[in-house]
C-alpha cells in the first residue's frame, strides 16, 4: 500500500532530522555512536538503518496525528472557555442608501431606525434578509468634493469636504456621518488623524464661517447597541467588539461630524 503524500512528507522530515542530528550525536558521543554502528550520520549496520527508518515512520505518524487533532483540541477548549467565539457569524455587509436626487421626494432628514429589515435581490430564486445595526439618517445632500492637501507653510494637512444640498431641500440635521472608503493603508491612517490629530475644523454655510470645535468629531460603532449581535446577553461588550472587528472591520470606519445649530 502506498503512503499518502502527506504522510510521506512527515516521514522524510523525520528521517532527515535523525540523519542530520545523527552526525552531531556521533561527534559528541563517539563511543556510543560506535556501539550503534553510527559513523558521521551513516549507519554501518543495515539492521540499525531499518530500525531508524521504522522509528522515523512511527514518529512521523505521531506528529501527523497531533497536527491533525490540534484544531479539534483547540475547538474543544474554546467551547469551554469562550463559546461565543465558536459560534457562526451570519453574513454581514455594508449597505448604502442612495436616493436619486432628480426623482427623490426627500427634502428633509429621513430616518432609518436601527434593526430595520432589508431584502437582497434574488439569486437563483433565493433572497436573503438582513437587519441593520446602525440608525441611519438619509440627508438630501451630496458630497461633491473631497481633498487632502498639505499646507506649504506649517506642513499640516488640510482636509476639505464640500457638500451640495438637493433642490428644495430643507433639513435640520445635527450631524453628518461619513464612511472612509478606500485602501486600508489610506483609510486607517485617515481615521486616526481625524479622531486624534485634528487641531481645528471649520464649517462654512453659504460661504459663511460657523463656529465649531474639533472635539465633537465622534467615532461610530463602539456603543453596546451598535454590535452585530447586541441582543446576545451571554457575551460581554468587549467580546462583542472583538468579534465585530474580526468579522467586519469596515464597520468601524465611520465618523460623525456635528453640524452647527
What can you see in these coordinates?
With 261 residues, the chain is α+β, with helices and mostly antiparallel strands. It folds into 2 domains: 5-81; 139-258, no CATH class. It contains 5 helices and 13 strands. The chain has helices spanning 5-28, 30-35, 46-81, 184-196, 237-247; strands at 38-39, 42-43, 110-112, 117-119, 129-131, 136-138, 141-150, 157-165, 175-179, 203-205, 208-210, 218-219, 254-258. The chain has a 3-stranded antiparallel beta sheet, with helices on one face. It has a two-stranded antiparallel ribbon with strand order 1-2. Strands 3-6 form a two-stranded antiparallel sheet. The radius of gyration is 32 Å and the shape is elongated. The relative contact order is 0.10. The mean pLDDT is 82. This is Type VI secretion system baseplate subunit TssF.
Q: How many β-strand stretches?
A: 13
The order of strands across the largest sheet is 9-13-12
Give unreliable regions as ranges: none
Shape: elongated
Beta-strand share of residues: 15-25%
Average residue-wise pLDDT? 82
- Helicity, in percent? 25-40%
The radius of gyration is 32 Å
Give a short summary of the structure.
The protein is of the alpha+beta class. Helix content is 34%, strand content 20%. Helix 1 packs across helix 3.
What labels would you give this structure?
2 domains; 3-stranded antiparallel sheet; two-stranded antiparallel ribbon; 5 helices; 34% helix; Type VI secretion system baseplate subunit TssF; T6SS_TssF
Amino acid at each position: 500500500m502506498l503512503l499518502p503524500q502527506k504522510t510521506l512528507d512527515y516521514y522524510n522530515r523525520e528521517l532527515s532530522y535523525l540523519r542530520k542530528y545523527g552526525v552531531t550525536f556521533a561527534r559528541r558521543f563517539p563511543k556510543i555512536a560506535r556501539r550503534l554502528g553510527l559513523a558521521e550520520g551513516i549507519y554501518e549496520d543495515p539492521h540499525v538503518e531499518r530500525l531508524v527508518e521504522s522509528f522515523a515512520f512511527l514518529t512521523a505518524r505521531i506528529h501527523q496525528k497531533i497536527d491533525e487533532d490540534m484544531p479539534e483540541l483547540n475547538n474543544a477548549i474554546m467551547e469551554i472557555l469562550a463559546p461565543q467565539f465558536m459560534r457562526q457569524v451570519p453574513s454581514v455587509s455594508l449597505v448604502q442608501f442612495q436616493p436619486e436626487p432628480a426623482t427623490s421626494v426627500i427634502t428633509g432628514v429621513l430616518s432609518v431606525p436601527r434593526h430595520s429589515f432589508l431584502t437582497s435581490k434574488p439569486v437563483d430564486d433565493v433572497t436573503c434578509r438582513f437587519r441593520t445595526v446602525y440608525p441611519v439618517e438619509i440627508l438630501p445632500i451630496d458630497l461633491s468634493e473631497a481633498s487632502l492637501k498639505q499646507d506649504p507653510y506649517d506642513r499640516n494637512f488640510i482636509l476639505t469636504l464640500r457638500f451640495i444640498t438637493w433642490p428644495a431641500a430643507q433639513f435640520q440635521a445635527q450631524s453628518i456621518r461619513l464612511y472612509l472608503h478606500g485602501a486600508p493603508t489610506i483609510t486607517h491612517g485617515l481615521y486616526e488623524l481625524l479622531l486624534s490629530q485634528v487641531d481645528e475644523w471649520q464649517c462654512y454655510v453659504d460661504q459663511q464661517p460657523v463656529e465649531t470645535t474639533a472635539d465633537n468629531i465622534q467615532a461610530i460603532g463602539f456603543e453596546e447597541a451598535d454590535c452585530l449581535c447586541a441582543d446576545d446577553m451571554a457575551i460581554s461588550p468587549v467580546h462583542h467588539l472583538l468579534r465585530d472587528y474580526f468579522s467586519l472591520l469596515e464597520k468601524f470606519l465611520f465618523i460623525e461630524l456635528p453640524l452647527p445649530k
